[in-house]
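REQUEST FORM: STRUCTURE PREDICTION
Request ID: SP-0412
Submitted by: Lab K.M.
Chain count: 1
Length (residues): 60
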Amino acid sequence: MEPLLLTPEEAAEVLRIGRAKVYDLIRSDELRSIKIGGSRRVPCSALEEYVSALLDRAPA
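STATUS: Completed
RESULT:
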């Protein structure tokens, strides 16, 4: 079974960006995330939504 939630570090690997950039995207509400206890997690669906939003804004 594929994971439903990723750590910010795992999300960074999937997006091929740095960990700090993932935290920047979370802080700016461009990338949705949740908190479980003291841990931050990024739903896989949020990564897909983020990439879709980037594609929608990209010039043709």
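NOTES: The chain has one domain: 5-57.
Reviewed by: T.R.
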